[in-house]
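Quick one:
INPUT:
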């Protein structure tokens, strides 16, 4: 094997190693990004206090008087929410104190977690 062939093989191996290292680094970056996104999701699931004022099962909506919703930068008020899953409405009734998490889903403020308060 001549010197030129050895040099070409060395360059090819070096390039392959660089590409493999870059791919591992990129995947590590995705993992770090996913972990950060998971942390942000966990931060948005902080449960707020509320009181059920009205339930509309047919429309999949609930009216709550609620405390501050930090993740939505929303002050305490009464408002109508959509619920992510209509079955959530079977867990509560008017007058119940609740703990809930709301987020924007397809542009609408939606309850993504709901439970009767202890």
């Amino acid at each position: 094997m001549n010197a030129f062939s050895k040099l070409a093989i060395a360059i090819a191996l070096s390039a392959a190693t660089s590409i493999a290292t870059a791919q591992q680094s990129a995947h590590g970056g995705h993992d770090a990004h996913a972990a950060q996104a998971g942390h942000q999701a966990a931060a948005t699931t902080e449960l707020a206090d509320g009181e059920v004022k009205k339930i509309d099962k047919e429309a999949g909506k609930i009216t709550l008087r609620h405390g501050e919703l930090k993740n939505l930068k929303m002050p305490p008020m009464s408002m109508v929410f959509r619920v992510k899953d209509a079955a959530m409405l079977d867990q509560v009734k008017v007058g119940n104190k609740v703990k809930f998490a709301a987020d924007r889903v397809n542009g609408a403020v939606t309850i993504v977690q709901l439970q009767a308060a202890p």
